[in-house]
C-alpha cells in the first residue's frame, strides 16, 4: 500500500481508503442515492467551466486567506459535517479537527458524531461549527444550542435536506448497519482488514456521543442505518422552525442543503448569515443540480446579503477556484477529507488539505490572482 506521501491527489487517497476499509464502510463514504447520477455530476459539472487566466501579473506572493462568518481563515475551506467518523479511523473526529486547526480552516462537527461536541471543543482552539438537525425532540435541539454556546462554538449549521434519508442502495447491498456487525456478506471483508478491525475492537463501545445520554435508539442490537436515521428526522420542520432556531442561537448561522434562489432569499428573510449550497453529496434527492451550477443564480438573487459556501464534488484546487469565481465565499469538503481520514487518520486529513492547498496556490498563480478576493467572474466561462 503506498505511503501517504505517495498519494498525489484526492483520487489516490480514495484508493488507499478503499484498501484499508471493510467494504460496507468504504461504500458508505463513497456512495450516493439511487443510480448515483447526482453523486457523479457533482464533480463532473466542474468540467463544464473553463478558467480564463490573466498574465503579466505579480504573483510572487499568493495569499490564500479569507474571512468567513466574521472569522479569519487561512484557506477558503471548511471541513463538512460528516457523521460517525469512528467507523473510518480510530482517531475519529479528533483527527479531523486537529488537522483543521493546523491548516487554519473551520471544522464542522456532525450531530451524529462519535465524539461529543464538548470533547471536540476542548481538543483544539480552532474554528468550529456545529451541524444540527431540528429533531422530533425539540428539547434535545434546544439542548444542543445551549451546549454549543457553553463550549464556545463559533457558528451553528442547520441541515435542511433530510426530512428522511435518501435511498442509498450501496448500503443495502453491502449490509451497512449501525453499529457495524458481521454478516454473511461482510464477514470476509472485515476479516481481511485486520488493522481496521483491531483498532475498532480496542475502541470503546460505538456510540453517537451527542445523543447517547438521551436516547439509546439502537439498544443492544443493530438496525439498518437508514432505518435509524429515519427514526430521528422530523418531516414536519418548516421555515418557522428554522427562524426559531436562528433566535435560539443568536450567532453566526448557516443553512445547509439549499440550492434554489427562492430558498436562499428565505434564508435572508429569517436572519441566516450564510448558506451551504449542497445536495448532501448526492446522497439525498437524486436528480438535483450540481452545487457549482447553483452558485451564480443564488448570488444574483441575494447579492451580498448572504455568504455562500459551496459543498459538493470538490477534488481539485481548480474546483475551489471555479466555485469562488462563480460567486462563492468559500467551499466545503466531505469525502475529500474523509478519504484521507480513512487512509491515515489525522495525517491523512492533513495530506488531503496539503494537496488542495498546494493546488489552489499553484492554480491561482497560473490564473494571475494574488489573493482570494481577486478571483471573480471574469476568470471563468461556461464551456
Q: Regarding CATH, which class? A: Alpha Beta
The CATH homologous superfamily: Aldolase class I
Secondary-structure element order, as H and E?
A: HHHEEEEHEHEHEHEHHEHHEHEHEHEHE
Mean pLDDT: 91
**Rg over CA atoms:** 20 Å
Helical content, roughly?
40-55%
Distance between the termini: 38 Å
What percentage of the residues does DSSP assign to strands (E)? 5-15%
Q: Give the total of domains.
A: 1
Q: Architecture, CATH level 2?
A: Alpha-Beta Barrel
- CATH fold-level label: TIM Barrel
Largest sheet: 8 strands, parallel, barrel
Helix/strand/pairing category = alpha/beta
Question: Which quaternary structure do these chains form?
Answer: single chain
Shape: globular
List the keywords.
14% strand, 383 residues, single chain, 8-stranded parallel barrel, globular, two-stranded antiparallel ribbon
Structure summarized in a few sentences:
The mean pLDDT is 91.
Task: Write up what this structure looks like.
- It is a single chain.
- The chain has 383 residues and is of the alpha/beta class.
- It has one domain (4-382): TIM Barrel (Alpha-Beta Barrel), CATH 3.20.20.70.
- It has helices at residues 10-20, 23-30, 37-44, 92-103, 117-123, 138-151, 169-173, 187-192, 194-202, 225-232, 239-249, 261-269, 291-302, 317-326, 335-367, and strands at residues 49-51, 66-68, 71-73, 77-79, 106-109, 128-132, 155-159, 177-178, 223-224, 253-258, 274-277, 307-311, 330-333, 380-382.
- The strands form four sheets. Strands 4-5-6-7-10-11-12-13 form an eight-stranded parallel β-barrel, surrounded by eight helices. It has a two-stranded antiparallel ribbon with strand order 1-14. It has a two-stranded antiparallel ribbon with strand order 2-3.
- Strand 6, helix 6 (138-151) and strand 7 form a beta-alpha-beta unit.
- Helix 1 (10-20) packs antiparallel against helix 15, helix 12 packs across helix 13 (291-302) and helix 14 packs across helix 15.
- It is globular, with a radius of gyration of 20 Å.
- The two termini are 38 Å apart.
Amino acid at each position: 500500500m503506498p505511503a501517504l506521501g505517495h498519494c498525489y491527489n484526492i483520487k489516490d487517497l480514495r484508493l488507499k481508503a478503499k484498501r484499508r476499509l471493510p467494504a460496507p464502510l468504504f461504500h458508505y463514504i463513497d456512495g450516493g442515492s439511487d443510480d448515483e447520477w447526482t453523486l457523479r455530476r457533482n464533480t463532473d459539472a466542474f468540467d463544464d467551466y473553463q478558467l480564463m487566466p490573466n498574465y503579466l501579473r505579480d504573483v510572487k506572493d499568493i495569499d490564500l486567506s479569507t474571512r468567513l462568518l466574521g472569522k479569519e481563515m487561512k484557506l477558503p475551506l471548511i471541513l463538512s459535517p460528516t457523521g460517525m467518523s469512528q467507523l473510518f479511523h480510530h482517531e475519529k473526529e479528533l483527527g479531523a479537527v486537529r488537522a483543521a486547526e493546523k491548516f487554519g480552516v473551520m471544522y464542522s462537527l456532525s450531530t451524529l458524531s462519535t465524539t461529543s461536541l464538548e470533547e471536540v471543543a476542548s481538543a483544539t482552539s480552532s474554528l468550529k461549527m456545529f451541524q444540527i438537525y431540528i429533531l422530533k425532540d425539540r428539547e434535545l435541539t434546544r439542548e444542543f444550542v445551549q451546549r454549543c454556546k457553553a463550549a464556545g462554538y463559533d457558528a451553528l449549521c442547520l441541515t435542511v435536506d433530510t426530512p428522511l434519508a435518501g435511498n442509498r442502495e450501496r448500503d443495502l447491498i453491502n449490509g451497512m448497519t449501525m453499529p457495524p456487525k458481521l454478516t454473511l456478506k461482510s464477514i470476509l471483508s472485515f476479516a481481511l482488514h485486520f488493522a481496521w478491525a483491531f483498532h475498532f475492537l480496542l475502541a470503546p463501545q460505538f456510540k453517537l456521543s451527542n445523543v447517547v445520554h438521551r436516547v439509546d435508539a439502537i439498544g443492544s442490537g443493530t438496525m439498518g442505518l437508514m432505518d435509524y436515521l429515519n427514526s430521528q428526522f422530523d418531516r414536519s420542520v418548516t421555515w418557522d422552525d428554522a427562524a426559531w432556531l436562528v433566535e435560539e442561537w443568536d450567532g453566526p448561522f448557516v443553512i445547509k442543503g439549499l440550492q434554489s434562489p427562492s430558498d436562499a432569499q428565505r434564508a435572508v428573510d429569517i436572519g441566516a448569515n450564510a448558506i451551504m449550497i449542497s445536495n448532501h453529496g448526492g446522497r439525498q434527492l437524486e436528480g438535483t443540480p450540481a452545487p457549482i451550477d447553483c452558485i451564480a443564480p443564488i448570488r444574483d438573487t441575494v447579492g451580498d446579503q448572504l455568504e455562500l459556501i459551496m459543498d459538493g464534488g470538490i477534488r481539485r484546487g481548480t474546483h475551489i477556484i471555479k466555485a469562488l469565481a462563480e460567486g462563492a465565499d468559500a467551499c466545503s469538503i466531505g469525502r475529500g477529507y474523509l478519504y484521507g481520514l480513512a487512509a491515515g487518520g489525522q495525517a491523512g486529513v492533513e495530506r488531503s488539505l496539503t494537496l488542495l492547498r498546494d493546488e489552489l496556490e499553484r492554480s491561482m498563480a497560473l490564473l494571475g490572482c494574488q489573493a482570494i478576493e481577486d478571483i471573480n467572474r471574469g476568470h471563468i466561462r461556461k464551456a
